[in-house]
Every structure is written in structure tokens, then in C-alpha cells.
Design goal:
The protein contains eleven helices and eight strands. With about 260 residues, the protein is of the alpha/beta class. The termini are far apart.
Length: about 260
């Protein structure tokens, strides 16, 4: 827009040599430098803002643009790359430059637009400024928004008691595992409800005797539990063909005699 305005002014002043057609690279560059000079004159006119340049080695080029002098002055490259133009950290033009670089690079994160802008401009407090501008990007905020999470439910009383390890347990069966020779085996998993410790026992079959032997081995190794939880066959229902022979009455009698709930 600024380049079109400069051409319009030029054509009004020079009616005999008017410029027509598309904007040239030189016209766009001159318009950018004009805007940059206006920003610098507006910001660095105050003494407080000029003090921010004390840590930099600065100079003015032939166009009156304030630049920072770097250590790569003798590099064969553009003047903007060797000696970037100084821009303030808080200005609408600077925010537009940052947002344009951000959108052109597919809404990249902090480092990408920062590196691209530093090829032409030296923005004061650049990292903080770029981060502040990117935090206002609506599209990035929309995609970075966290999903609604369900609040955690309180743990049951038996999960938070002061008890010994494996005093309150739950058990389940996993398998079958196919062994050499065509035989099968199952794993009985005992877990502590409080400390989440795990104890594994191997079952050669799904009979009542095999389970009780596994339970006796568990008690001999870990001690007698006071409470035992079981899903009462929710996953056993899918294996009902294997578990029809399990005598749960016998298991209940075995448990009640040993004061196991």
C-alpha cells in the first residue's frame, strides 16, 4: 500500500513521466525503508528509548536508517543481512512483521520467525517480543487448546488404608499360553490394591484345585490377605467353557475359614 501511495505522489508531481504497470522491487524496497525510518524516528526520538541502544554498535546508512554493526561486515551478502535494521520491541509495524513471518511459515514456533526476521531486522528484546506476538495468534491458540478432562474420582477406602503389602489384593487370570507339546497354561495375577505390587502364579488348568493350589502358594509366599477382590468372572464369562468346572462355593469356604473376605 505504501509503495502505491509513493507512486501516486510521484505521478502527481511528474505528469510528463508517469510510472505505470506493476510495482517494481525497487519501489517496494523504498516504501519499506520509508516505513522503517518513520518507525525509528517515532520511537527513538525519546531519550529513554535511545538508552536501549547503548549496548549496541549502531550507525546510520545513506538513507538515514539506523542499523546495528555486526562482525560480518566484510561478508559478501546484502546490507540487511550484514547490518540489520534496528526496530523497537513495541510497535504495530513490528507486530505485523512478526505475524506475517509466522503465517508465511505455516504458523511455525518461536525460533523460525525469529531467525527469518533477523536476516533483515534487529528487534530489541526480539525473543520476548516474538513470543508475545505469537501468543495472540488465534489459530495457534485454537489448536493448542487442551481438551476438557474429567476430574479424578476419589479412591475407594480399601485403596488408601494403612495395611501391609498384599493384605488387600485383587486377582485375575491371563491366558491361555500355549506350551510345547500342545498343552496350555494360565497365569494368575495377584495385585496389591494399595501398593500395586504384583505376584504371578502359573496354573496348569482352570480347575478349582489348580486355583486353590495357586492361592495357597501365594499365601505361603506373601502372607494371608484380609480382603480379596475378583471381577467375579467378567472376563471369565468369555472363557465360560473353561470355567464351568470351577467350584466357587468351595473357594468361598476355603476363604471364609481363613478370614478372607
Amino acid at each position: 500500500m505504501a509503495a502505491w501511495m509513493k507512486r501516486f505522489i510521484f505521478n502527481c508531481r511528474n505528469s510528463t513521466s508517469r510510472i505505470t504497470g506493476e510495482l517494481s522491487h525497487q519501489e517496494i524496497k523504498q516504501a519499506e525503508l520509508k516505513i522503517v525510518k518513520m518507525v525509528q524516528d517515532e520511537y527513538f526520538i525519546h531519550e529513554v528509548n535511545r538508552k536501549k541502544l547503548n549496548s549496541l554498535t549502531t550507525y546510520k546508512d545513506g538513507e538515514g536508517i539506523l542499523r546495528v554493526k555486526t562482525k560480518i561486515t566484510y561478508r559478501k551478502d546484502s546490507e540487511d543481512f550484514k547490518n540489520p535494521i534496528i526496530l523497537p520491541s513495541h510497535h504495530q509495524v513490528v507486530e505485523r512483521l512478526i505475524m506475517t513471518a509466522h503465517k508465511k511459515n505455516s504458523h511455525a514456533g518461536l525460533q523460525m520467525p525469529l531467525n527469518i526476521l533477523r536476516e533483515h531486522y534487529w528487534i530489541l528484546n526480539s525473543r520476548k517480543t516474538v513470543r508475545s506476538v505469537l501468543s495472540k495468534c488465534v489459530i495457534c491458540l485454537r489448536h493448542a487448546k487442551r481438551n476438557v478432562t474429567t476430574p479424578y474420582a476419589s479412591l475407594p477406602e480399601n485403596r488408601i488404608k494403612d495395611v501391609a503389602v498384599f493384605e488387600i489384593i485383587g486377582f485375575d487370570l491371563a491366558g491361555p499360553l500355549y506350551l510345547k507339546g500342545g498343552s496350555k497354561a494360565w497365569i494368575c495375577i495377584y495385585t496389591c490394591a494399595v501398593f500395586r505390587a504384583v505376584h504371578l502364579e502359573l496354573l496348569s488348568s482352570l480347575t478349582t484345585e489348580a486355583f486353590l493350589q495357586s492361592f495357597r502358594r501365594f499365601i505361603a509366599r506373601r502372607g494371608r490377605p484380609s480382603i480379596v477382590y475378583c471381577d467375579n468372572g467378567s472376563n471369565f464369562i468369555g472363557a465360560s467353557n473353561y470355567l464351568k468346572s470351577v467350584n466357587w462355593t468351595e473357594i468361598a469356604q476355603f476363604s471364609s475359614v481363613r478370614r478372607i473376605q
